[in-house]
Amino acid sequence: MKWAKRFGIVMLSLPIALVIVWVLYEIFGMCINHITTKKQTNTLRTNLESEISDIEIISIYSETGNASGTGNHVDCMSSIIFSTEIQETEIEDCMSKYYVFDEWSCYVDQTDDGYYKIYINTLAPFADNIEGH
Questions:
Q1: CA nearest 105: which of 67, 133, 72?
Q2: Which of 9, 40, 64, 119 has the least C-beta neighbours within 10 A?
Q3: Strand ordering across the sheet containing 56-65
């Protein structure tokens, strides 16, 4: 009789334990995704500063989540607005050893204020995380 009671307790506790494990996995994935976005943004900034001598950073923005809006996935998006005397094509040439410019997930664009914006959007390590839904 004792084994039946223990078996019943284990069977009732199992769904709760599985839910707790799933929630912890999702939280772990969210943390890793945010760390990846921060690292991507910091690397982008470092690459810009090492390649463009007269750069002046105006603003830095990053976002982790479904940035593109094209499905249930998580993106790591980094965007830096900066000023420099060199032209857009020269910026792309300088940065092409680090990034592949494709006009969708990685591009350089001139803003209305005359500044330049570099945008990078990559898939997060835990792309199927709850944060992208």
A1: 67
A2: 9
A3: 56-65, 75-83, 116-123, 106-110
